[in-house]
Amino acid sequence: MNTTLNQTQSQPTAAQNRRVEYLTPLANILETNDGYLLEAEMPGVNKDGLDITVENGELTIVGHRAPVENRGREVYRESRSFDYRRTFELDPSIDTTKVTAKIDQGVLKLHLPKAEAVKPRKISVHD
Amino acid sequence: MSLIRYQFPELSNRSSFDHLNSLRDEMSRLFDFSWPSRDTGLFSGWSPSLDVWDDKDNLVVKAELPGLKKDEINLSLHEGVLTISGERKHEVEKKEGQSFRSERYFGKFQRSVTLPTAVDATKVNASYKDGVLTVELPKAEEAKPKQIAVNVS
What's the pLDDT tens digit per position in A16-35? Predict the structure, then answer.
């Protein structure tokens, strides 16, 4: 029950020694005509806790949880208090200068527009 | 005498399911692949995680419910059982185009928790922020810890 609290007390495995623990946020990715819409679930994270970077064609989203005040004795626990982190490989067609992000009730929404050059274009036919 | 399953000392505080979960996390990290989250029960679509805290005067129940609207969450308290239910609806109408990943769950959910002490149902307070529902349930007077003065005559 006390998984999170016991993490520090129990013998850390070799893997735990090497890195910080993160949760992988669940994500949906949808392609639209203009680009991609990426949604990621990060309950407990607000705007200030977000860290979004694009580097070497990879998008990394990190969500730090807003600090929670101590609420007394823990009776039952299922949630895990680690921060969130996930990396996605970006399609080369995405214009990384125009990526926009917002977070609403713990769901991050990233809009990744395609560069103008690769958008489908209708070509009119002259007489 | 009671029978207690023998556990290896280093595992004592963690259930075997915790180990399964951490193995799953390791696998996810290796392949940058997300297994259906631990929130997803085996038989139900979505089972949001619940925490219960006990400070002296209140029970506090927290549930991770990302991406809902306030009025999509229903709370009920009946005979000491708090039930959180609701439905998460698709916000984006099915647009043309291809779905690359679809890990989020949409649809109905319900969780119930038996409260460990009696609470005053008329003073329950709930708030929803950053996708986390927090329900504060003040303990009933008879369930609060009391100082009893001892008179020595």
Answer: 455 678 999 999 999 888 89
* Closest to B118 in 3D by CA, of B137, B136, B103, B132: B137
Residue contacts between A and B (CB atoms, under 8 Å): 132
Give the Cα separation of A6 and A114 in Å (integer): 45
How does strand A50-55 pair with strand B125-129? unpaired
ipTM over 0.95: no
Q: How far does the CA of residue A88 sit from the closest CA of chain B (Å)?
A: 8
Show the CA angle centred on residue B39, arms to residues B125 and A101, nearest 5°. 80
pTM across the whole model: 0.72
**Closest of B132, B118, B111 to residue B45, by C-alpha:** B111
| B64 touches A at CB < 8 Å | yes
- Residues of A whose CB is below 8 A from B53: 71-75
Spell out the residues 6+ positions from residue A38 whose beta carbon is closer than 8 angstroms to its own.
Answer: A27, A28, A29, A59, A88, A108, A109, A110, A112
